[in-house]
Amino acid sequence: MKKVLLGSFVAIALLTGCSDSTETKTEKPVETEVKVEKEASAESKLVDQVKESTAKITQVVKEASSEVASKVAEESKEIAEKSSEAAKSIGSKAEVVAKELTDEIVNKTKEAKDNIETSINNIVETKTDTNVASKGKSLYLKCAGCHGQNGDMKALGKSQIIKGWDKQKVLDALVGYKEGTYGAAMKGVMIAQVSSLSNEDLDILSEYIASFK
Asked: Rounded to whole angstroms, how far apart are CA atoms 181 and 204?
């Protein structure tokens, strides 16, 4: 009887141990699944954070690019306006210079015209004069354009100033020009001027030129 009871207790102990072992083994997969779920949740949060950061960075880049483009456009417009103003200023200055040159040319032309008109008037006034002084004045008219009304100019900027010369000095020069024995730079010009004058004309002209004081 004792042996039967002992065998029963052993059987119950073995069954109890197997049951505990089985329960322990079945609990481990549940803990693993919880751990996996936690890890998956952490990874998901990390992915979401990365996505959010990427979106923010993209937005910042877009805003920065837009701001840069706006500033570039603004600077370009300002440069264009300044260039336009500079071009206008240069154009205005060029117009002023051109006007000044034009005015100067007009004044010089008017001055030359006045001199010619004065010479023509003198010719008309002395055309009928018969005395020596008037004839000398008439002869000198074609000289006045280069030598000046009173002989105080260098003809073509090259000759001597004849104002202050005495009659003999003037006469020697005029006769020398006519005969081709006198003159330097103005020789060719003066030969043509005096070749048609008589000796009497040269004498009268010399006396008139000598009267310039």
From this structure: 21
Q: What is the DSSP string of 164-202?
A: T--HHHHHHHHHHHHHT-S-STTHHHHHHHHTT--HHHH
Whole-number Å distance between alpha carbons of 209 and 65:
89
Q: How far is CA 56 from CA 44, 46, 53, 70, in A?
A: 18, 15, 5, 21
**Residue 97 three-state SS:** helix
What are the pLDDT digits (tens) for 99-151?
A: 776 787 767 767 766 766 676 655 555 444 457 788 999 999 989 888 998 88
Count each helix (H run) and each strand (E run) in the chain, helices first: 5, 0
CB 115 within 8 Å of CB 107: no
CB 212 within 8 A of CB 151: yes
Please state, in angstroms and as integers, the Cα–Cα distance from residue 19 to each residue in 16, 30, 67, following that order: 5, 18, 73
Q: Is the distance from CB of 103 to CB of 168 less than 8 angstroms? A: no
Half-sphere exposure of 193 (CA within 13 A, CB side): 23
Q: Rounded to whole angstroms, how far apart are CA atoms 147 and 163?
A: 9
Question: Is the model's pTM score more than 0.90?
Answer: no
